[in-house]
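Researcher: I'd like a candidate sequence for this fold, 339 residues long. If you have to choose between options at a position, lean toward the conservative one.
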């Protein structure tokens, strides 16, 4: 077992779009667990759009990282050493750890991964934070009903792909925006969406919606924001629900672009626009994971993962989120079990 540890630090705050210089890889000795702690060897690391917000000094819903500080993220790993903690070497756990080969953690900050529910990587995707975001954002905020038209942006991503399938389960017509023909084929052929729109093939999102959502939009799950959202707003029906989950098209913006103002549409439709934070639903996570695992086992919910090999490539995996390089959940494979 390696005695050195590689980890990524925030090298500097990005201005606009981050690049490789945002990250610094350093080496140190493998960390020793303190009393009541374990050392976890990273198997999979999750890279997520929200991490962009933590790179800025300003307030967001998550604490900013300091320059020179290790980057953190969702990890699935194997306990390799326990110093009186309630986990044993060999246990597979998940938690918010570092972009590193190894990290120490208190047992109370870790959760066991149940391998009976699915491959262990799914604890970071369809059975983890993104899956739960899709679950609560769809069922509790966007609330699609049978016969409704449900639109989702970022539709081929970790959250969007699951949200669209959950909306399908409620009997809605489901339309997804995604950034390539391959992704549109994935939505329509593999996930059972009624229509996919490749937003990189047209500027006229409104015309694309006139065709794909001829009866207007009753529920909108927004992961992206910007001009696509402006177009969807013009199609909202009376009593529509909008779940504002993410606004990735704005995360690298140095100044907030001024867009069309579509709020008059909310007056005539009495539509409801509501932000969501997955953490607010923490008391109900177990039920969500159980339902999602059941749907995955029955094939009612399909999932995809894009796996980048090697911790050293984690920055590229993260940067690729903003280029649409992933289909489904973007992961980094850092180690093998039992190495
Ligand atoms: P993801 O969708 O798997 O990956 C990001 C995707 O966004 C990319 O694959 C890309 O796909 C699309 N994208 C990137 N830049 C874009 C742009 N300028 N315009 C349109 N699409 C763009 O990521 P995820 O983890 O599932 O997260 C999706 C969204 O949910 C993010 O906005 C994230 O911040 C948010 N989120 C919110 C919560 C919450 O609690 N509120 C929790 C989890 C995630 P294309 O090829 O389609 O461009
Ligand atoms: C995201 C992932 C998580 C995000 C928000 C969260 C807006 C919020 C998590 C929580 O604190 O509940 O990509 O984007």
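Model: Candidate sequence:
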């Amino acid at each position: 077992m390696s005695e050195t540890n590689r980890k990524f630090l925030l090298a500097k705050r990005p201005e606009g779009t981050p690049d490789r210089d945002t990250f610094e890889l350093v080496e140190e000795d493998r960390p020793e667990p303190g009393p009541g702690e374990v050392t976890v060897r990273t198997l999979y690391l999750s890279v997520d759009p929200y991490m962009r917000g933590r790179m800025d000094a300003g307030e967001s819903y998550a604490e900013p990282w300091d320059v020179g500080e290790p980057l953190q993220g969702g990890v699935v790993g194997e306990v390799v050493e326990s110093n009186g903690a309630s986990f044993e070497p060999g246990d597979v756990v998940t938690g918010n750890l570092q972009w590193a080969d190894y990290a120490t953690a208190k047992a109370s900050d870790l959760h066991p991964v149940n391998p009976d529910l699915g491959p262990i990587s799914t604890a970071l995707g369809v059975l983890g934070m993104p899956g739960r975001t899709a679950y609560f954002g769809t069922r509790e905020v966007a609330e699609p009903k049978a016969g409704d038209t449900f639109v989702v942006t970022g539709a081929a991503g970790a959250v969007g792909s699951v949200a669209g399938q959950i909306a399908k389960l409620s009997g809605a017509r489901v339309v997804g925006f995604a950034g390539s023909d391959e992704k549109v084929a994935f939505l329509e052929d593999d996930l059972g969406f009624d229509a996919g729109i490749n937003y990189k093939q047209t500027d006229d999102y409104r015309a694309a919606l006139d065709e794909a959502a001829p009866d207007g939009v009753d529920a909108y799950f927004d992961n992206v924001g910007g001009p696509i959202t402006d177009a969807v707003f013009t199609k909202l029906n009376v009593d529509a629900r909008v779940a504002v989950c993410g606004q990735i098209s704005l995360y690298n913006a140095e100044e907030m672009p001024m867009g069309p103002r579509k709020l008059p549409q909310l007056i005539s439709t009495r539509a409801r626009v509501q932000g969501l934070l997955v953490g607010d639903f923490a008391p109900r996570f177990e039920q969500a994971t159980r339902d999602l695992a059941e749907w995955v086992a029955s094939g009612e919910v399909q999932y995809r993962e894009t796996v980048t090999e090697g911790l050293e490539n984690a920055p590229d995996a993260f940067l690729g989120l903003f280029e649409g390089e992933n289909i489904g959940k973007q992961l980094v494979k850092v180690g093998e079990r039992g190495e």
